[in-house]
Amino acid sequence: MPHKMTALNQMNQAEFTAALGEIFEQTPQVAQQAWQSRPFASRADLHQKMLAVVAQMSQGEKLALIRAHPDLGSKAKMAAASVQEQAGAGLNQLSADEFERLHRLNQAYRSKFGFPFIIAVKQQNKIRILATFEQRLTNSPEAEQAQAIAEIAQIAGFRLETAVDE
């Protein structure tokens, strides 16, 4: 059940972190630090203040945030939101050939960049995801890290839409 903005603004830091700690995949410190910027005027305001926390992260912290995300189509343990998001894009229903292609792309991407390919899969389908995956393999490491952070910001926005009721 979504949290009301008024309730979020009244929560202590531990409650707030428990409520929104998974907005950024396995990185509850974003919510923990954003709590200090209360009160939030709206969901968009909360999102912007969470993104400000990410912007202030060190390079190492940003890489840890990126690396906290699962490979697409992975059977590895991941946040419930990731499971739902990937299923919504059809990544839980890949043919054997599609799964093998995705596995090869994941390996090539990790080998080149040192972190998983991240794309906001909501409102995507497996065909567009695979095409984007192949295109982004041609990018520079710097461009891909910036793109990964931009995708994470979009994912967080989608997750806040589900978690927070204005």
Automatic annotation (TrEMBL):
**Catalytic function, reaction form:** 5-hydroxy-2-oxo-4-ureido-2,5-dihydro-1H-imidazole-5-carboxylate + H(+) = (S)-allantoin + CO2
The Enzyme Commission number assigned here is 4.1.1.97
The protein's UniProt keywords, in alphabetical order, are:
Decarboxylase, Lyase, Purine metabolism
Spans through the membrane: none
Taxonomic superkingdom: Bacteria
Instruction: Identify the InterPro entries for this entry.
Output: OHCU_decarboxylase (IPR018020), OHCU_decarboxylase-1 (IPR017580), OHCU_decarboxylase_sf (IPR036778)
* Pathway stated in the Swiss-Prot or TrEMBL entry: Purine metabolism; urate degradation; (S)-allantoin from urate: step 3/3
Q: Which GO terms describe its molecular function?
A: 2-oxo-4-hydroxy-4-carboxy-5-ureidoimidazoline decarboxylase activity
Task: Give GO BP annotations, semicolon-separated.
Answer: allantoin metabolic process; purine nucleobase metabolic process; urate catabolic process
Domain Oxo-4-hydroxy-4-carboxy-5-ureidoimidazoline decarboxylase: from-to ranges = 9-161
What protein does this entry describe? 2-oxo-4-hydroxy-4-carboxy-5-ureidoimidazoline decarboxylase
Q: Per the UniProt entry, what species is this protein from, by scientific name?
A: Pegethrix bostrychoides GSE-TBD4-15B
